[in-house]
């Protein structure tokens, strides 16, 4: 498992006389604004949930009764059901069958187990595809596809939209008042579908473009059609851009935005049904906004259809796992729900203690639930090799026992300040548009148009996040154009190649009002149309950062002087910074002219810091650590590499994410509330070990 790099000395500007002025005294601290209110019926503080995802479509009545008994014995408090099962409830057009599911809901209630009921709008049943062929997908080459796997549904089709709302309405009216019902979920893993290229899709795309741009002149300008003789003289000349190249990028970005809006409107339609039929039950959906083949702009729209950041959590390492979980939490005040949670899967069979470790890691981030995927192993279908908590022969595996241990842990912790209600003072900017703009599909585009984008956008985001995670600092991951930034004191903008006007304005206001913004290389190069700024860069913010960025260079031996130490860059690309009002905090050494590597500029009541390289943990860490005290940001407990911790009501929860034992220095003698051991001077965590220490 990758480890976080060792900590570096505190950041000290190269020119000592700038330190106090530029790094400590330029920020006026502001009160932290309260986040938006949660759903009035949310399962709040003092409640943690362990449970499982359950597919009763696979099970006999006898198996279901035994399954529920095992869940109850294991201490499970909630199950998620209904996902992927539209035709289980509606086997033919307009013919609904609920008797079997009624009995299961009643049995869950009798066992004291709550239910998250998923509206299974994906995948659509085969009868719907046969009767309404507009729901079939069409490739960009014009080939109509059969629904050969999950999510091969054209969710923009009017018949699909009509019928999924009818299904949702019928299902939620049926169970809205059932005593087992806890929450409603929408369309499992929506975002992991496909774009479609039918003639009807093209016409719907044109309607979307007309609403966005108003007239052809605006569209031509936005798509730069004066280039390569591609001017559009009539709306009917608009064709669906190819997602899989070639460009141009402006059109592809709008294609992605269009399908994102289709997804968001689908979720909004289902939320309207929930509000009508089950207004007292929150929406907790297993969403997948970052899915590679389509995805959607969750961070700009989540308030329309979500009360919790909920997701499938299948972590590989702490930085990526933590970042994605916080993306789903967004700016919400409610905790994170892991509607699917790692229980097995390729590469992890036989790894005892791993699920328990990640469950506690989730608690550090502000999670409230873990629902194992899945309860019973599937005998057939696309995921027949994913082992559940029961083996394929229905024998309870050791994994069921591990989740029972998690349930017992959570039963203790929910009385001790969990779930954590976080109010982070640090935010990292992230946007769907930027992800699409920096990841064009096709080698021709990547190699000839954007050769300097050698560091993927998500890599920059993770690199900016890693030192904060290492220092056990709470962080929000947000779309800065759609949040109240006044609640944060430090805003990190890592490699935001596309920076639209709303985001530009948000950064300007944040700094002017007293915030500290840190921006890294490759940022603010193109505007909201995905076209290069014709102004000094960073576009729209050159005065805020007090400099002009000029060109891109490559130096394999790139070093930055931080304090008395040269820090070697792991990424050889850098920008040449030309300060105007900005002050130089650090310079590259052994590079011609020793150009600035870090600058700071006072703007309004705040400060804007620019880093000339892509975000890298070894450079960002000392910079953050120099800022903490001046911004009123208190790092969490000190931990060795791979161990993470948070203090909760005077106690400290430690999680060892590594496969090696770790020792943690502690102050005096402390009691381990999970192990029952007494620890003096040091805590010894086994591989994947967890412990809650109390004086």
Automatic annotation (TrEMBL):
Secretion signal, residue range per the UniProt entry: 1-33
Transmembrane segments: none
MF annotations from Gene Ontology: beta-galactosidase activity; metal ion binding
Domain Glycoside hydrolase family 42 N-terminal: 53-406
CC terms in the record's Gene Ontology section: beta-galactosidase complex
PANTHER family, alphabetized: BETA-GALACTOSIDASE GANA, BETA-GALACTOSIDASE YESZ
Name of protein: beta-galactosidase
